[in-house]
Each structure stands twice: as structure tokens, then as C-alpha cells.
Amino acid sequence: MTRSGDGRAGRRRARSRRRGLLGPSRRPGFARSRRALLGATLLVVLVLGGPLLVGLLDPSVETEQVAPAPTPVAAPSSAPVPAPTTAAAPAPSPVQAAVEAADATVTRRGADVGIAVLDRTTGALALNDEADDAMNSASLSKLLTAVDLLDRGAAGTVAVSAQDRRLVRAALGPSDDPSMNALWSRFGGQSGITRVIERLGLQDTAVPDDPSQWGEVQLSARDMTTVVRHVLEAMAPADRDLVLGAMSAAPDTASDGFDQAFGLLAPDRRGAAAKQGWLCCLQSSVDLHSAGVLDPGGRFVVAVLSNQPFGYAAARSVLDDAVGALRDTLV
Q1: What span, in angstroms and rounded, lies between the C-alpha atoms of 35 and 272?
Q2: Three-class SS of residue 199?
Q3: Distances 249 to 117, 252, 271 between C-alpha atoms, Å
Q4: CB 298 within 8 A of CB 287
């Protein structure tokens, strides 16, 4: 269930304090004896309950269990992302340790970074404390729109032409905005997002307030792992090949000239397939995202979404560090 605005704001304030933002100053006027008593009390708490207090302020990474991949999926012809081989008794998943390592790299003050990693072999889904934060999707909504129209085309409820498929490829690879505009208008815009929410059971995703602003679809890192998994396991093979092929062949430079070689598309440690997102500068911050498949075997689905109060260069380094930690642990 999506939290209320007030609840999310409180969570964001708490997370900002954990990331290093200063809190309000203490009011003057305490008596010396009360200061001494307070100091003694705090000392006792820190000595006796320090580990518990740290755990409350910075909760450990949460791991959920979802069903592992039910059956192997044939490798798409245009993107080398086969389904992992499901072992009879898989070893414990490393995703919790990976997300803990990635979360520890987020040290910039005020950065809100949601990290979610799904192990398709064991069904383990590891989430940091911000993984369910709904953020502006930027171009990640292009993937949801593609999933909606291609699934409907496979079901025979809409006609998807060869030109429509070319638009999907352009929207997902070079992240072409005019192509997305055409798909958004032709295939229902907000209603397409609503269909994906309902069909995939997304928990944190919502349509934008302004129907024309597809970049302001609200979604979370947790929900993005669900979307990418749907592409890998549930789409018609030809549609899966189209989506993964476009994301795996995404160029370093997007059609609008933006350098999208960061996170899962970092050139020196590039993931198997990814959709990137960027948006500036609502409420004096940038949204920068990377979501897709980490490894060529297709075992690990990764989503790192961020809202950061600084420019793209600094925000890019935050995602590079987080994804680098994931890769060092998992691959």
C-alpha cells in the first residue's frame, strides 16, 4: 500500500538526518544539573544499548521472499540474457549483503537512493530502507509503457505495428523522447500505467498528476524489479527480445545528447541490459535512475533510483558507487 504524503515526508526527514543533514539546534535555558543528568543518561544508553540504538536509527536491509523463476526462459535472440539455471537446493542468496554494501556507499547528505536487488534463482528480494520510496520515473516510465502495449498486442486487444515496435526500440535504447510521446498518445498514456500497476501488482507506482508528463509517473526501486522480472519471465518471446535487445544495445549517448553511461551502463563495468532515467530540476533536485539486469546469466535484477539535491555529475557518482558495490558482491 502506498503511504500517505505526510508519512512519506516523515520518512524522508528521518532519512535525511541519517544521511548527515543537521537537525534543529537545542534551545538554551537548561539548568546545569539537568545537563549533567542528561549527559549521564545518554552515556548509559550508549554503553548498554548502543547496538540497538544504531539498529533503530539505520535499519538493516530487509529481505523478502518471492517465488523464484518457475521455468527456464529461452535466451532472447537479440540480447544474451538467459534465465538462470534453478538448482534443486540453491545456496543462500548474496543479495542482502550486496544491498548492504551498496547502501553503505551512499554518504552524500540529502541523497535519497532506493536500492532493490532480486535473485531470480532463489527468489530473494533485498531492499534498502528507501527501496519503496516513490520517485519521479523520468524515462523509466518508457519501459512500463512498452510492457503495456506489447502485452496488449500479444493478447490481441490492440494492434501493434512494425512502426510501433521501432518506436519502442528507440524509446528504450537511445531513450528518444519523441518516440515515447507518440507511444504515450497512441496507447493510452496514464491508462497504460494503471493497467501495468494492476496486472503486475505494483505497490508504489502511481500515474502523474499531469496526464501529459510521463516523466512524473511515480515509482520505486522495488516496483522496478517487478517490471524487469516480468519482461524476463512473462512477456511473449518476441516482445521480450525486443525490450531486452533495445536495453542491452543502449548507446552511451542518448538521443537528447545526455550521457547515459552510468550505473548499470557504466562503460567499464556495463550490465547486461538496463533502462536509464534522468530528470531535472523539480524542487531543486535531480532524479537519476538505473534499472535492469546486472549479469549476463540474468540471475540478478537491479534497480537503483535516486532523488538528489545536487547536479548530475555528483548524482552520477552516487549511482556508480552503489552499482559498483553490487557488482563487486554479486558478479
Answers
A1: 57
A2: helix
A3: 22, 9, 11
A4: no
Asked, as a colleague might, if the bond just before 281 is cis with ω within 30 of 0, I would say yes
Per-residue model confidence as pLDDT tens digits over 175-211: 999 999 999 999 999 999 999 999 999 999 999 999 9
Cβ-based neighbour number of residue 155 at 10 Å: 9
Residue 65 has pLDDT above 80, yes or no: yes
Given the DSSP bridges, would you call strands 112-119 and 124-127 parallel, antiparallel or unpaired? antiparallel
Which residues are bridge partners to 304 per DSSP?
115, 290
Computed from CA positions of residues 188, 307, 105, 324, in that sequence, does the dihedral angle turn out positive or negative?
positive
Rg (CA), the chain: 21
Q: Report how far residue 256's alpha carbon sits from residue 312's, in angstroms, rounded to the nearest whole number.
A: 15
Q: Give the alpha-carbon dihedral of 324, 316, 304, 72, to 10 degrees.
A: -60
C-alpha cell at 313: 555529475
- Three-state secondary-structure class, residue 71: coil
State how far the Cα of 323 lies from the Cα of 326, in Å rounded to an integer: 5
How many residues are given for the chain?
Answer: 331
